# Entry
Amino acid sequence: MNRRNALKATGASLLAGTALTTSATADTSDGPTVVSVESNTDSSSADGNDEYTVEYLGDGVVEITGYTVAPTPCHGIAVDGVYRSKYGDVVDLSLEASSGVCMTVLAGLTYTVRLEYATEARDVFVSVPDGA
# Structure
């Protein structure tokens, strides 16, 4: 679909730090199931703009990959929820701090979110966290 090619978007945000991997079961009534959320931070790279790409892998599987900036390297990405808009499903992301001692320095954060739909995937957009 040409419409899905237009769904690649950019934004602005920065993160840094450690690797966080979580599994979620945020299931909406007829929406997608969040299968996995992975994020990796790098305190040596905290510049650039928020950006993300939505890829439709077939069989109802959607993968979102992106970059943002975090206020410390001890942050990861969390999926706050998925809601339907008139244009498609919106994945609401936020920054999640891990516990422990952490230096105060901006860090680059890359993330991957994988969704599965029971039927054909709808158009997917991302609400990027407000990082630094």
Summary: The first helix runs from residue 2 to 5.
